[in-house]
Amino acid sequence: MGTLTGKTALVTGASRGIGQGIALRLAADGARVAVHYNANEDAAKQTVATIEAAGAEAFAIQAELGIPGDARTLWAAFDARAEGVDIIVNNAAVPGPYGHLGAIDPDEFDKVFAVNAKAPFFVTQEGLTRLRDGGRVINISTGLTRTAAMSELIAYAMSKGAIDVFTVNLAKDLGTRGITVNTIAPGVVDTDVNATWLRGNDQALAATAALSPLNRVADPAEIADIAAFLASDDSRWVTGQWIDATGGALII
């Protein structure tokens, strides 16, 4: 019996990358996992198939985030397959526009905030009536909110800063129900979204690895392991926290 046997988890943006890693790990620990995806149905189905092949349970649900009614659409799809949730992982995000302040237009700015900040807020709000007492909310942020400024990623970092504030306030609000709320803040992770500049580029890989005292780049499973701890009963006395998952890149 796993540490999460009998629990149901929702992981947004779980068809690939960090979200997929978290979905696989929570399922391995016994949870039944709702694998949310935006557009990549094949990847979501493959994630579900991988979980089921390992003897666990999962189902895919589709909802585009960052548009009106996104939270209601997501939970309607969830409700058709499950009754109640124990773990909500707000992972889905877009990288946002890459550029300095003067290069970002209002539509790009609105998009990154709609997906990265507004959607988690309302997905969680809509989910509160389904989230059982003693449950878990796990938000995925970034080390960029507490490290040296990277002005080319200003909009993305700002959107994730909103998640950090959301976490501490929600932890205070939900504590009376025994629900913990925490943030995981990764650094660079070897995922598909970083593949174009990281994989196959020895110079970029070496420079990125050097940011960490461990001198390597994380893979999704290492972020997922932290999520598994926060989802488990072992983390019952941890709430409102920002967990540095940068491999020590923030050490001065």
UniProtKB/TrEMBL annotation:
SUPFAM superfamilies: NAD(P)-binding Rossmann-fold domains (SSF51735). Keywords: Oxidoreductase. It holds the Pfam family adh_short_C2. Transmembrane segments: none annotated. InterPro entries: NAD(P)-bd_dom_sf, SDR_fam. Gene3D superfamilies: NAD(P)-binding Rossmann-like Domain. GO terms for molecular function: oxidoreductase activity. Belongs to the short-chain dehydrogenases/reductases (SDR) family. This is Short-chain dehydrogenase/reductase SDR.
